[in-house]
Structures are given as structure tokens and as C-alpha cells.
Amino acid sequence: MNPAAIDIKDILCAEGIGTFNSKTGWGVFVEVQPEAPITAITIYDKGCVSTNLLDHSVQIQYNTVVVRVRGPNYKTTFEKAQSIVDFLATVTPATWGGSKYLTFSQFDGPTPYMVNALTASNVRDNKQNFMLLIEFMAIREKV
User: Fold this and answer.
1) CATH code, domain with 71
2) CA-to-CA distance for 18 and 30, rounded, in angstroms?
3) Which of 20, 71, 107, 142 is the most buried (most CB within 10 A)?
4) What is the pLDDT of residues 40-98, one digit of tens each?
5) Alpha carbons 54 and 59: distance in angstroms, whole number
6) Closest CA to 25 of 9, 41, 7
7) Which pairing describes strands 40-52 and 27-30: parallel, antiparallel, or unpaired?
């Protein structure tokens, strides 16, 4: 069973939303967002809660995942973030990386990534690129 961020990277790349570790176009990364390309999608594992069915035959995991989308302007960045939201909302149960993904439930975003949360003054990185966050709950079972 892979970390959920790795599986979601594979799912997004298979759909053509981006290319893993690409230095041009929309690059898709896991846990570390590089300086280039400007157009980057980075997936972070945030946490997980597991539960077993009453007979302990199936373990269900509720993985929280954050997707950070960085782009050159607000419109382009928002459109890419929304394409991720729209796609994951349509994913039917499928097996990736040793897990059967049952559903993705979006519970936040796309929202601006606040570089300074105290003043809520900046949605750009130090190179003036826009960043948006999306949070999902990925519900899966080990196969």
C-alpha cells in the first residue's frame, strides 16, 4: 500500500492533468514542490484514520491529502485546481498502488495559500506565482 499522495500523483498523471517530475508544462510532485516549473501540482499526505469493519475483514483508511497548485496568474491556477476537483469527483472505485480507492471527498478549496496567515495578505510565493490549496479525503481499502 503506497502513501495516498503517491497514488493520487499516479491517478492525476494517468488522466493527463500533469506529468510526474516535469520541468516544463504542469509538473506533478509529491511532498516537495521544486522552484521550477512555475506550473506545479504538489500532493502532500496530511493524515490518516483507519477503521476495520465489524468482522475485521476489511480495513478502511480515510486519508487527508492536500494538493497545492502553483501557476503564473490567478485564472490559470484556479482553472487547473478546478480541473483536479472536477476529475477527482468523477473517479469511480479503482485500484492504484495496492489500494482500492472508493471515493474522493473534497472538503476545502480551491483556496488561496496564505504565505502570511496572520495578515492574509499574500497568495503568491516569493517569485510572485499564485498558489491555491485543495484538501481531499481519500477513502480507500487495502487490496
Assistant:
1) 3.30.2000.30
2) 12
3) 71
4) 999 999 988 888 766 667 788 999 999 999 999 989 999 999 999 999 999 889 999 99
5) 10
6) 41
7) parallel
Q: Which helix (H) or strand (E) holds 63?
A: strand 59-71
DSSP run (H or E) holding 137: strand 130-142
Instruction: Determine the distance from the C-alpha atom of residue 40 to the mean position of all C-alpha atoms in its chain, rounded to a whole number.
Output: 11
- Domain residues for the domain of 29 are 4-142
Please, what is the end-to-end C-alpha distance for the chain in angstroms?
A: 8
- The pLDDT assigned to 111 comes to 82
pLDDT on residue 49? 87
> What's the CA gap between 58 and 143, in Å, rounded?
9
Domain count for the chain: 1
Three cell numbers at 2? 503506497
